[in-house]
What does this fold into?
Amino acid sequence: MPLLEIRNVSRRFGALTAVDRVSLSVEPGEFFTLLGPSGCGKTTLLRMIAGFDLPDAGAIVLDGRDMADTPPEKRPIHTVFQSYALFPHMTVAQNVAFPLKMAAAPAEEIAGRMKEALAQVHLDEKGGQYPHELSGGQKQRVALARALVNRPRLLLLDEPLGALDAKLRVEMQIELIALQRDVGITFVFVTHAQPEALALSHRIAVMNAGRIEQLDEPSRLYGFPKNRFVADFIGKCNMLAAAVIDAGSTGLRLSAKGLGELAAPAVEGVRAGETGVFAIRPEQVRIQAPDAPLELENHFAGKVHDFLYVGEVTTYVVELANGLRVEALLANSAPGRARFFDVGEPVRVAWRRDAGVFLRD
Amino acid sequence: MAQARGDRVQRWLVGGPPSAFLVVFFLVPALIMVIASFRYPGEFGGLAPLLPAAPGEEAGLTTENYRVFFGERIYFEIFLKSFGVAALTTLVCLAMAYPLALLIARSPKRHRDLMVLLCVLPFASNFLVRVYAWMIMLGPFDLLFSKFAVLAAMVYVHLPFMILPLYTNLEKHDSTLLDAAQDLGANGWQRFWRVTFPLSLPGVFAGSALVFIPVLGMFAIPEILGGIGDWLVGNMIKESFLGVRDWPFGSMLSLMLTVCVLAIAGSAAWLARGGVARA
It folds into this structure.
């Protein structure tokens, strides 16, 4: 049985439908992420799961029990807020002990579990300090310890890493994964940062305009986006307008506007005559000199428009015959990496016939 | 260097005049009052000369006023009563102002300014006029010249001084803290008692000081609305200067009142320091 079920939930604010007939289920022990741009409804959905807001339609079911009549303080669900929301007049220890006190746990149990929770987030020494004496990362850990200390069924995290700087964010991501594995509590994580979502989650629901665009594992979302929104939102993607010439069992033949024909992997249900875009990731596009041997089926001539060297890779922007710009990623450690291409230099971009995906309009 | 000196000159230009004002009109009178409390009263008010004009005349300095003050129970009792009235007024103001301040602070932003304005509206009319208005109100109910009349008017006059600092504090509270408390299992009462109230303590202390101290020195309300038994320190001081014209005794009473207030405020600040520093 799923731990959490969202059944056909809608929430409207005046004329705006913030959440539009969303259904999903979260399995016990899962690290589940709601990903989407700001205003997509992910935070509204999170607030409804926590109980701060109620759906206009549909049901939120936890452990098989409808939560409609359960106020936030009675739900076995805790939240880590974006601003941490630590109580400024309490010490770290008092903050972490707060949920235990509210649950009227015996004093000796409170002390033990508070220490255990602080140890879990490596803050054993900081119990006597006040929140304003801590760094951003430490506050974050206190918020986590406080939310986990009385072992909720579900932990909600509302953009918890948003306020941290880039380096600390990566450290906290690694800690979050380890922490979730250790405590075995189900996490529902809300973010607009797709690298974070891909790195942390078992499954991701990509949301846009109140609806779920795609719900899948990170690698499938990245490799097989279902539509243009997902392809564009998750990672970088080159998009070529294309029409289907032939749809066989082995693959599709597409005609890219102003470029010519190309081969693409088969997509279920796509027939000849349909139009859409062919989406391909920059790292799947190979860049080579025009006179190099042609090993791959799909190849187009162009010239280097610009490039961006960032150390481990160089991103080339190649302008094709039809004026379209395609990004190609070249690992600087690639075997046989002989030379760089300069701006204006004629090159060829190429990719395998099983790379990329055709997305219908 | 020139820049630093320019800054210093600027600082003196800005801070100098108000500081000078305070020295001339606050510090100097306070010192005069201290010295006056050790002198003899003049024959028709004012102070007796420091050097005797005729032999046997009272002149120079004396501790007589303090001997009377500490020697007679009546002064201790009237001080105690005054502090009692001030404490009671403060408590009633706090009990009435807190819910109101909370209500304003949690109202939609566009209504708040109007509500605050309504709270301070009584200041638009003269204080004495408002006290006399209470006379007219209480008269028909036979409540005039009683302890109740004094307390009611004290609370009425000082309530805005409690509401404003409380509102200013409560309005700044981060509402996500209450969400967090609720999320972590706190019911309505626990959210108030464990989060809102401790965070509002600086406002509680500020408001209490703004009510407690003026009430201690108040003489108009007991005089107009109270009976002879409802007199407070303020009435004694006023009577010393304007009634029996014993300036030194009045100065001594004022000074003792100031010392007591400072002692109370000091110990309250010392007790509250932890809480205030953290919030």
